[in-house]
Specification:
The complex is a heterodimer of chains A (644) and B (295). Chain A is built from 14 helices and 28 strands. Chain A is an alpha+beta fold and 644 residues long. The chains are: A alpha+beta (644), B alpha/beta (295). Chains A and B meet through helix 1, helix 2, helix 3 and helix 8 of A and helix 1, strand 6, strand 7, helix 6 and helix 7 of B.
């Protein structure tokens, strides 16, 4: 009983704690936190360090990288109260970086032009550079002021010297300072170039270069004649090197003895409508320090070519490993010639053919190609005066669905094996050598289809708890041909499990018997109304008394219990209620009392004395034993009327 | 006395039944569980994309082409499981291996890939969502996985190491760093960003996508910034089945109790279990009759 109470207490405790199980179930190392509850912790030091990095990149002329880095700041964790300030700071920095990015090439070009004594072109560049430098100076002033405001907001000036935020601020200031130095250097370069330019413009002799072309309109691949003259302050400049630039492609020539030049230029196979030609004179040798350089006026060359038209017709759907035909037509405004046509699937060349006009090209997509949309490109390569052409189509690569007919039994007795047959086919015909896998519960088997696509397989049906009902039969079909899709289907088979049904029947019958037995023995109404014949009652009493255990006490206890048994025997006989082995003295008293109207009092007393004798530690004396015997006598007298 | 004993027996049986029902029906709030509707579960993606929770890798499809398996490897793998994963990928399946501090490297080693999960926490003090433990990933390469993805938010993530530059799909910011000594601050020698966090690899006919944070799939994270687009893209490359492995998630008492109940239920569905159940039923029903006859 005690153990039972302890076990029960533990169960109740577990029941009370059960809601906590899920909390205890969490892993010790939490691999994440709830983002909704995450506390914001913007790192102010990182903001200063970030700008320091941007300005460091700018100070080493990596303006594009600096801009890319600055653009990333939109993803930074910036506190709302600083967002406006940071946005403005970013705008200033972006402007500065853009200006610097434009300024350096301007100065480079100006430097080159000054070195080539091209004063007029150099002047334009230097003027533009001057404007950019002035902008840079202004922006830097603004950034320095903004840096102080931002740092103040970030609490830099309240921080201790040597603290992380102070160190980050110092680094940022250093970066801004380096940027200022760079701007100063660029300014000095601009001034120096301007100075050189001014000297050249005053001291050197200006030159002039003319250019004419014939014809002004040609086919690509044809030649044009270019000619002109180089003069310096009215004098012909002979044997001077000139550079002809056709769409910036250089060709070096030399002036003749009369200062003129003439040459043929082959127009490259660039399929554009116009190209630009210009001539350049750059002083070299003894001319350096004497003459200025010059450019000729640019001349436009109208170029012609035969444009190619390409028409392509292809199915929108293809299948892996199955050939398809791409048809089309290549045409141009000037008759028909042999053209090379290439076909690419996602940049992988699948076919190349030489064709005239119409074409039909067969391609086969790779068996392992993934299904879905792919790009199919047809390219006609350029050829002489004929330009190239290309056309891209979207082709959907898919696998063809297959069909299957399954023959299976409608009803199966488990564990009898199941025979399944069928036929796998497609509209193109039956599928041979296709792998057919069948699974039923824990059993599986695999077969291959024959030439007519048919198959027959036998699969075991293992025993389980099921009694009767439908069960899933899984069928997987994997064709050999890559253009067919695999197929997974399920069929239901009605199964009957005789073994389980028998076992369940036994269980239910047993349970029914038990319930019937209990109900029959526990009906109280019937028990009370039961009339037992006298002879049977006597037999029962004899049996009950015979079964009653003996006792081995001595002295007064023995006398008391003998008296009780004596009295009990009388009461059992009169009331007809036998005392069962599991009945206590008190329970028997309660049961017999209603039928002992006269002898109830002495039997109650006798029962109490017997209980004391059996269970009490109280020492019994002679008078108690005598009283018990007296009570028995009283009971007999009351019940038998003194006959006993 | 007899009556009290009978009452206690009935009470015990009722309590055991109540406990069983509570354990069975108590909603899961365990990390990454597909049935967990709370912040740390993956019920949203399971229901949005009809993803199938997988209780065992032996249930992987025989024809994996077009199927995608999202795997959070928080338990060690058996050789048989590694073989099943290898077969799944090489036969054309897509494996999305999302790990931070688990057993992802065991799989990568088995599959023969050079890439590894670092296993150290990736912190970003500047480019982050609320705190440095939630780094924001904005360096994304163009690919079908990262299409239309602007920025991703990770949650207590790690990074990938030994990944070829051409395989990298996403990088952390240049302000991020790996906190090797766990002091939550950058120290000299600790690797700094950009560090790879998502990569793409081909293996056999299949593909492997490595993500250095499985938390990107949990209910509270998948709606933040472009995380949902990433998951959409993963679902879009799946033409067959989208599977979420549940068999290698962190174990818990609740889940173990649920599993125990499932195992008991399943055991009754075997021949031995069925016979045993019938024997127990017969014993329980016949014992009183036996005693009565004997008595």
């Amino acid at each position: 009983m005690k153990k039972f109470a302890i076990a029960l207490s533990i169960i109740i405790l577990l029941a009370m704690l059960s809601p906590c199980f899920s909390i205890l179930a969490q892993p010790t190392h939490t691999p994440h936190e709830n983002p909704a509850l995450a506390k914001g912790s913007p790192d102010l030091v990182s903001i200063l360090l970030f700008y320091g990095n941007v300005f460091d990149l700018a100070a080493t002329s990596q303006y594009q990288d600096a801009q890319s880095l600055l653009n990333e700041l939109e993803y930074a964790n910036i506190p709302d109260e600083l967002q406006y300030l940071i946005d403005r700071y970013n705008t200033l920095t972006q402007q500065l970086l853009t200006t610097l990015d434009n300024l350096e090439p301007l100065l480079d070009e100006a430097s080159t032009l000054v070195a080539e004594y091209q004063v007029s072109e150099a002047k334009q560049k230097l003027d533009a550079a001057k404007v950019a430098i002035d902008d840079t100076q202004l922006l830097l002033d603004d950034i320095e002021a903004a840096t102080n405001i931002l740092s103040d907001k970030l609490g830099v000036f309240a921080a201790l010297a040597g603290s992380q935020v102070r160190l980050a601020y110092d680094r940022l200031q250093e970066s801004v300072h380096r940027l200022r130095q760079l701007t100063d250097e660029l300014n000095q370069l601009q001034q120096s170039l301007t100075q050189r330019h001014e000297i050249q413009a005053v001291e050197l002799i200006p030159t002039e270069l003319s250019l004419s072309i014939s014809p002004a309109s040609v086919f690509v691949g044809d030649n044009i004649a270019a000619s002109g003259r180089l003069t310096g302050d009215g004098n012909l400049l002979v044997n001077r090197r000139l550079t002809l630039l056709l769409d910036n492609e250089p060709l070096v020539i030399t002036t003749d003895l009369d200062g003129s030049y003439a040459t043929d230029i082959t127009i490259p196979y660039k399929y554009v409508s116009t190209m630009t030609l210009k001539a350049v004179y750059t002083p070299s040798g003894n001319d350096i320090g004497t003459y200025l350089g010059c450019y000729s006026p640019p001349m436009a060359v109208d170029t012609s070519f035969y444009p190619t038209l390409l028409e392509v017709l292809a199915l929108e759907t293809a299948h892996p490993g199955l050939p398809i035909t791409i048809s089309g037509q290549v045409s141009s405004t000037d008759g028909t010639i042999d053209r090379t046509v290439q076909v690419l699937l996602d940049n992988t060349q699948l076919a190349e053919e030489i064709t005239q006009g119409q074409f039909n090209i067969q391609i086969t997509s790779p068996p392992q190609v993934s299904t879905g949309k792919h790009s199919l490109t047809v390219i006609v390569t350029p050829q002489g005066r004929y330009s190239g052409a290309s056309k891209s189509l979207t082709v959907n690569i898919s696998r063809m669905p297959i069909r299957v007919e399954i023959q299976k039994p409608l009803l199966v007795l488990i564990p009898k094996p199941i025979e399944v047959s069928g036929k796998v086919y497609h509209s193109l015909g039956p599928l041979r050598d296709a792998r057919v896998s069948l699974t039923f519960k824990d059993s599986s088997t695999t077969v291959k289809t024959s030439t007519d696509g048919s198959f027959t397989a036998t699969i075991d049906a293992p025993l389980d708890l099921s009694l009767v009902g439908p069960q899933e039969l899984g069928i997987t079909i994997e064709p050999v041909e890559p253009w067919y899709t695999s197929l997974q289907i399920e069929r239901r088979i009605f199964t009957i499990n005789p073994a389980n049904m028998g076992l369940m029947l036994v269980a239910f019958v047993s349970l029914g018997l038990l319930v019937f037995n209990r109900v029959r023995t526990r009906l109280p109404g019937r028990r009370e109304k039961l009339v037992i014949p006298e002879a049977t009652l006597q037999e029962l009493l004899i049996v009950a008394q015979a079964l009653r255990p003996g006792f081995e006490f001595g002295g007064i206890k023995e006398r008391i219990l003998s008296a009780y048994l004596n009295g009990l025997g009388v009461v059992e006989k009169v009331t007809g209620i036998p005392m069962s082995p599991h009945t206590t003295l008190r329970e028997f008293l309660n049961a017999a009392a209603p039928q002992l109207p006269t002898a109830i009092k002495p039997f109650v007393e006798l029962t109490l004395i017997a209980e004391n004798a059996l269970y009490s530690a109280h020492k019994l004396d002679e008078s108690t034993a005598a009283k018990a015997e007296q009570l028995v006598a009283t009971i007999k007298e009351e019940l038998y009327g003194g006959a006993a | 006395m007899v009556e009290l004993r009978r009452f206690l027996v009935i009470l015990s049986v009722v309590l055991v039944l109540i406990l069983t029902i509570v354990v069975w029906f108590f909603p899961s709030n365990e990390d990454f569980r597909a049935e967990n509707p709370f912040w740390n579960g993956t019920e949203d993606i399971s229901s949005s994309y009809s993803a199938t929770p997988l209780e065992s890798l032996s249930d992987l499809p025989l024809l994996p082409q077009g199927s995608t398996l999202i795997l959070v490897p928080y338990l060690e793998f058996t050789p048989a499981e590694l073989g099943e994963l290898n077969s799944f990928v090489t036969k054309g399946g897509t494996l999305v291996l999302a790990d931070d501090y688990g057993y992802g490297n065991q799989i990568l080693e088995y599959l023969g890939l050079k890439a590894r999960f670092s296993g150290h926490i990736l912190l970003d003090p500047l480019f982050s969502y609320k705190s440095k433990w939630l780094p924001r990933i904005s360096h994304l390469a163009s690919s079908s996985v990262t299409d239309n993805t602007d920025s991703l938010i990770l949650n207590h993530a790690t990074c990938l190491i030994d990944v070829e530059a051409s395989d990298v799909l996403a990088l952390s910011s240049s302000f991020s760093f790996l906190d090797l000594n766990g002091n939550q601050a950058w120290d000299g020698g600790e690797p700094t960003g950009p560090l790879p966090v998502i990569s793409y690899h081909n293996l056999g006919s299949g593909k492997i996508i490595l993500i250095s944070d499985p938390s990107i799939f949990i209910n509270s994270m998948e709606t933040i910034e472009s995380n949902y687009t990433l998951i959409q893209n993963i679902a879009a490359i799946t033409t067959s089945e989208l599977l979420i492995d549940q068999s290698h998630l962190p174990p818990s008492n609740l889940h173990q109790s649920k599993n125990l109940l499932s195992a008991i239920r399943d055991s009754f569905n075997t021949l031995g279990g069925a016979v045993g159940l019938v024997i127990v039923a017969l014993t329980v029903t016949l014992i009183p009759i036996w005693y009565k006859k004997k008595g």
